[in-house]
Amino acid sequence: MYRIGFDVGGTFTDFTMLDEDGGSVHYFKVPSTPHDPSEAIETGLAALIDVHSIDPARIRHLGHGTTVATNMVIERKGALTGLITTRGFRDTLEIGRQTRPHLYDYSISRPTPLVTRELRLEVDERVLSDGTVEVPLNEEQVAEAARKLGEAGVGAVVICFLHSYRRPEHERRAAEIVRAILPNAYVSLSSSVLPEFREFERMSTTVLNAYMGPRMGTYLERLLGRVSDLGITGELNTVHSNGGLMSVPTVREIPVRTCVSGPAAGVIGAAEIGQVANFPNLVTFDVGGTSTDVSVIVGGKPLFASDRLVADYPVKTPMIDIHVIGAGGGSIAAIDDAGALKVGPRSAGAAPGPVAYGRGGTEPTITDANIVLGRLDPVALLEGRLPVDAAAARKAIEEQIAQPLGLSVEEAAYGILRIANANMSRAIRSVSTERGHDVRDFALFAYGGAGPLHACDLAQDCGIRTVLVPQEPGTLCARGILLSDINMDFVRSELSIATPAAWSRACEVLAEMEAEAAAWLSREGVPEADTVLRIMVDARYDGQNFEVSVPLDGVDADGLEDLIARFRRQHVQEYGYDVSDRPVEIVNCRVQAIGRVSRVPIAPPIPVPGVDAVKGRRPVYFGEQGWIETSIYRRGQLPIGRTFAGPAIIEEMSSTLIVRPGQTVTVDPVGNLIVSVFE
């Protein structure tokens, strides 16, 4: 039987296939098809089936990482959306938090709300913060609002009432009315998507969910059709933002949770591989075609965040804490109005792509610079499947960058890389040193198609001593999908000072949530033996605005003192101080439902007999050191334990590692490349 993970990126769609019977793992990449991401998925799956002579019926599981939801928000291509809310609160979506994206830059404004004001309709109803109904739901007004939205042609309807996290009945009844009048509309309830207090974040998240819903459903139907046409009958799961998997029905219901789908899978994969390689502390460094994603793993566990911006819109949902910048292999280099060289965030993407790919690209990119400097194979990539036009890349850099700046082509290309590296270094520091981590205690885990190209330079710049590069790093997000468990986060707000009575109520809520989580796992097809439930409580000191998450060993009616002690320790760890005389407030109760899945084996590649590890030599440009004749290695042919010094280029299907002069690289027992950056 086979399990396949695939991740749709901005430039390439990556595949990892596990043969469960033989234990072998295979990797593959195809160019992405932004007009229809499912097309590239079908192409890649068909190629894997053909190349490895697989019976499609033996593919029992597909894991899916996607940027479809995020891209439709970035491109503003979601559904026309309407909102029904409590009277007096329709402008919550526009008022927001009254914070400016850049405090002193008055030319920058917040994004236009995804629901225009005329489609934000109010009805009479009011639930107080303690759950008391002050004004009953006016069902006639809900019906009238639904009719108005139908006349406007909306494809999605958001229902978000004040304090619905305390009493969701009003939203549920309103949804029944809306569905009866608009049977084809996608209806999203804030009490289902995010049953937490803070009405702006709840409304914003639910609006994004509804905005994504119809097109995400269409995409999933198209994808399922293509998979079925190939003869594959195995289940399809999608990675969501906290690194877990969920079924197609769950994705249809809450697509907003897929906003950092692929990058989250990469971090999960990095954590697993780092543990095996004895590097529990990692800075993950994922460079693809359009973006660079960085995150931190401490003690073998990724760090999580409860909110982030997606295309400048607030989203509050549990997710792996990933910092994203617009710098990737396809990032375009250009001279700005002031005559300075700028790299990114504009990207050539998959279409037309870098100039060297010969697909119509005319503007030089980071990939073109790496080809011109001999860092990437100037003939072909992807083991010969992607021809490269090095002369065209050189001409583009010469005409558009070097000549206007009075530089040689080499100086211009290297300048592109230095600017890109500076941007990436800032991203690494933002998640490491700026958050109190000593980078000397961390290894830089480099992956993505372009991560290993830049990793050794960046580690040297940032003071990181070790770089770890896994096998086929350009497909790690797809591989991470096969290392991901099925999981879902459940949350309910319970705002109250942590007294015995309040803790008793919180325990009742947590017990209800455990039952809800167990039922969800059962619907996802997880056997009871593979089920794990994790309990957390968000707490804060009375008077604070934001909370910290406190993990608990379980629901214990006598555990109030333990909760408070754990909270105080967590507060000291995150903020550096304790307020021992201040009461503690319980904010949210959380349960994470986990369904364990079998893991992809982490084993070294088997070298092909009779094939030399050294592929050849070519000149490579190393900045101040100029051109150096450098050995080119086939990664799959490097034996376990082999150690050699840079300069070196190590090539494989999905990526290329550059080892600088003075650095050494070793192949560890499971096939990872470990680069010692400093002696």
Automatic annotation (TrEMBL):
The record places domain Hydantoinase A/oxoprolinase at: 202-487
Record's SUPFAM superfamilies?
Actin-like ATPase domain
Coiled coil start-end: none
Residue ranges annotated for the Hydantoinase/oxoprolinase N-terminal domain, each copy included? 3-181
InterPro entries annotated for this entry? ACX-like_C, ATPase_NBD, Hydant_A_N, Hydantoinase_A, Oxoprolinase-like
All residue ranges annotated as the Acetophenone carboxylase-like C-terminal domain in the record: 509-668
A Pfam match? Hydant_A_N
Q: Which PANTHER family match?
A: 5-OXOPROLINASE RELATED, HYPOTHETICAL 5-OXOPROLINASE (EUROFUNG)-RELATED
Protein name, entry field:
Hydantoinase/oxoprolinase family protein
